[in-house]
Specification:
The chain has about 725 residues and is α/β, with parallel strands linked by helices. The chain folds into 3 domains: about 250 residues, Glycoside hydrolase, family 3, N-terminal domain (TIM Barrel, Alpha-Beta Barrel); about 200 residues, 3-Layer(aba) Sandwich (Rossmann fold); about 120 residues, Sandwich (Immunoglobulin-like). Helix content is about 30%, strand content about 20%. The strands form 8 sheets. It has a 6-stranded mixed sheet with strand order 2-3-4-5-7-10. A 6-stranded mixed sheet has the order 12-19-18-17-15-16, sandwiched between helices. A 4-stranded mixed sheet has the order 9-8-6-20. Strand 8 and strand 9 form a beta hairpin. It is globular, with a radius of gyration of 26 Å. The protein starts with a helix and ends in a 6-residue tail after the last strand. The protein binds beta-D-glucopyranose. Beta-D-glucopyranose binds next to loops. The site of beta-D-glucopyranose has 7 residues, from loops.
Length: about 725
């Protein structure tokens, strides 16, 4: 069957999978094998990666079958915007996680999706949802936070938005929460920790109907994720009923072709590399089932058929890239993501908000630098990006700048100003994606050469991309991805600390702004400044967004998507060079609660220019859900928004081993000054279920569940309700 006939059949009501099987039945052996990997040749593809910035030129193509008219899939990253051509750079996902606003994230997804379609992509790796196990993770900025429920809701939201235009792919499945060792580390994780902490968000997004899943580089319990039957066949397809297709992570995503086919991985990305060398002979020798290859091809074709209506709409024109609407959205998100962490009075008045007429100094090596975050696969070549200083200059009458390299000059500028904003933090050189010295065994995965016809076809394709200009700011960046990696310290660089201290001594009205992808320990300097904000890597309108918050035009409503510890020792261990590592159930806010370490700033926390209180709450339950009703009062003098958060303590197992408490619901709500608003959340009881490793299934344990209605984890003013649930664990 030709692909167009398949489309017509599905449009007429035929089942996509059955129809896909009919397309597959008409494929010859070479066509079938062609579907198993990316369409690019390995060596020419690697050259294009390192010398031609291929990520930013064209989408990666896989499984295109010209004879039957199947377009295959065209993949482009990534989480902070479309990486092909010159698109809009949005604030990184961690910033968006701080908005706690899935509806806003749907809009971001939709905007990114539009831009992806305009450049010819139909599949995107923009849904990065590995939980932040430890703030040192180099790619922390690409995900939404440390908590599985929160990450799942944000990831589901971006998926909804993206899939109005393209197929989305969630990554990296699974347990990919460290960077430097990602190609070699084996994560040991028991069934309970895996299902309760490391997979719930993937499950949530699978249920949202995401088209595709990218496996992780690392191995889990001794098997590489790209060839893990336990993860791909048993959990993803078997238990969760996932109907889409799976792709490997790039280049080193699997080690053994036949094993990966048998495990249910559909496409090796992005080159004809591992499988092309081994699967044809294995098929010949009967070591790979033809039916497994057919099933892989059918899943890719069936998924595309399911998305035919979405992908059949005309692609938007290239003008949507960086459109005024998308830049306005980027600014809205930038402002909405700024977390206000400290705002102490100076001479009786909190330092923030500021007034436009105040004379401002903006200081620091990052103050007047476009700082979008990671320099790896998620890098967006936006040509129209503001620095923090640009945004402040546009918003205030008088702004002076010192880059901080000359401390005396910085002090002079600070003394002359009424208020100082010190911009500190990291860049792509300090945290981000990383390819360092890889294991020698990885180089054995490369083929001896490329197939000439595949090279010719690829080279012609590379020329077909949309226009893309490399931003000048990247001229001094080292070639390849070997930057960033896992952080070596959770503290600011010593130069930043010295600058903060010098400036704060020169001007008591000092506001510190941290650009970073996750938690930064602030203890050694925080008492010397009255105000602290975290504006992240805030995208193309980072400066204007921050200015709106500093001026109070936007009342800060962002809340931390992770906990900030006082000290490194308060966190679970992290070893960026580990070969094996154990992930257990304890990290994040629940680890701190368990060990009795008070965070410097708790998960879910953030200040506002007004005051909020949960004044009333009620929790009832039916056989299937909890209903939480809460009243949120704005007791201050400005309109604002806050996030009502519902946490649950789970009854102890019969073994007596404590179960981590959970965030089970949240809702952001706007409340006018002096007013109160009611929030209702219907929370499925399934969110309280435990994983039973004996039955390999979820059970709702009978007992008393303590439900907290709070404004952040560990909120001393939370309202607590004990709910007795008759579970299904006693039979
Ligand atoms: C990253 C993925 C990314 C892929 C393709 C890999 O290096 O781990 O997150 O989607 O490249 O760009």
């Amino acid at each position: 069957m030709m692909y167009d006939d398949a489309r017509a059949a599905v449009a007429g009501g035929a089942d996509p999978m059955e129809t896909a099987r009919r397309v597959v039945a008409g494929l010859d052996r070479d066509e079938l094998l062609w579907c198993l990997d990316g369409d690019a040749p390995t060596w020419a593809g690697l050259k294009a990666l390192t010398h031609q910035d291929i990520y930013h030129r064209v989408p990666f193509v896989a499984a295109e079958l010209e004879r039957v008219g199947f377009p295959g899939v065209r993949f482009a990253d990534g989480p902070r915007g479309c990486v092909v051509a010159n698109a809009t750079a949005f604030p990184v996902p961690m910033a968006r996680g701080a908005t706690w606003d899935p509806e806003l994230e749907v809009r971001v997804g939709e905007a990114i999706g539009t831009e992806l379609r305009a450049v010819g992509a139909d599949l995107t790796g923009a849904v990065c949802v590995n939980v932040l196990r430890h703030p040192a993770w180099g790619r922390a900025q690409e995900t939404y936070g440390e908590d599985p429920h929160h990450v799942g809701e944000l990831g589901a939201a971006v998926t909804r938005g993206l899939q109005r235009w393209v197929m989305a792919c969630m990554k990296h499945f699974a347990c990919n929460s460290m960077e430097n060792a990602r190609f070699s580390v084996d994560i040991e994780v028991d069934e309970v920790a895996l299902h309760e902490v490391y997979l719930p968000h993937f499950k949530r997004i699978a249920e949202e109907g995401i088209a595709s899943v990218m496996t992780a580089y690392n191995s889990v319990n001794g098997e590489w994720c790209g060839q893990s039957p336990a993860l791909i066949s048993d959990v993803l397809r078997g238990e969760w009923g996932f109907k889409g297709f799976t792709i490997s992570d790039w280049i080193f995503g699997l080690r053994d072709g036949p094993t990966s086919v048998a495990a249910g991985l559909d496409i090796e990305m992005p080159y004809r590399m591992v499988r092309a060398q081994s699967v044809p002979a294995a098929l010949e020798a009967g070591e790979v089932e033809q039916s497994a290859i057919e099933a892989a091809a059918a899943r890719v074709i069936a998924t595309r058929l399911r998305f035919d209506e979405v992908l059949g709409t005309p692609a938007p024109p290239l003008e949507v890239l960086g459109s005024p609407q998308h830049r306005a959205l980027a600014q809205e998100v930038a402002a909405r993501s700024v977390v206000l962490l400290r705002n102490e009075p100076v001479e009786g008045e909190p330092v923030l908000p500021l007034r436009p007429k105040q004379r401002v100094a903006v200081v620091g090596r990052l103050a007047d630098r476009v700082n979008l975050g990671d320099g790896g696969s998620s890098d967006v070549w936006d040509l129209d990006c503001e620095t923090i200083a640009d945004g402040l200059r546009a918003a205030f009458d008088s702004v002076d700048h010192a880059d901080g390299t000359d401390l005396d000059h910085a002090i002079q500028v600070a003394q002359a100003a009424e208020v100082v904003v010190v911009v500190v933090g990291y860049t792509a050189a300090d945290e981000g994606e990383f390819i360092g010295a890889t294991d020698p065994e990885l180089s054995e995965l490369f083929p001896s050469g490329d197939e000439p016809d595949v090279v010719a076809r690829y080279e012609a394709y590379v020329e077909s991309g949309p226009p893309a200009t490399k931003p000048d700011r990247l001229a001094d960046r080292p070639k390849g991805f070997s930057v960033g990696g896992d952080r070596t310290s959770l503290r600011l660089l010593p130069g930043d600390v010295a600058l903060i201290q010098a400036v704060a001594a020169a001007n008591p009205r000092t506001v510190v702004a941290i650009q970073a992808g996750s938690a930064v320990i602030v203890d050694e300097w925080i008492e010397s400044v009255p105000a602290l904000v975290q504006p992240w890597y805030g995208g193309c309108r980072a400066g204007s967004g921050l200015a709106q918050v500093l001026l109070g035009e936007v009342n800060p409503s962002a809340r931390l998507p992770f906990s900030v510890p006082h000290h490194e020792d308060d966190l679970p261990a992290f070893d960026r060079d580990a070969r094996t590592f154990t992930y257990d159930r304890w990290h994040g806010w629940w680890h701190l609660e368990r060990t009795g370490r008070a965070p410097a700033y708790p998960f879910g926390y953030g200040l506002s220019y007004t005051k909020f209180a949960v004044t009333d709450s009620a929790v009832t339950n039916s056989a299937t859900e909890l209903t939480v009703i809460a009243t949120l009062a704005n007791t201050g003098h400005r309109d604002g928004a806050d996030v009502v958060q519902v946490y649950a303590e789970i009854p102890t197992e019969r073994s007596g081993e404590p179960a981590p408490p959970r965030l089970i619901g949240f809702q952001r709500i706007e409340v006018a000054a002096g007013d109160a608003a009611s929030v209702t959340m219907e929370i499925p009881l399934a969110r309280l279920a435990r994983r039973d490793p004996r039955q390999h299934e979820w059970v709702l344990v009978s007992g008393t569940y303590r439900i907290h209605v709070a404004r952040f984890a560990g909120d001393p003013n939370r309202k607590t309700h004990d709910i007795t649930i008759e579970g299904a664990d006693e039979g």
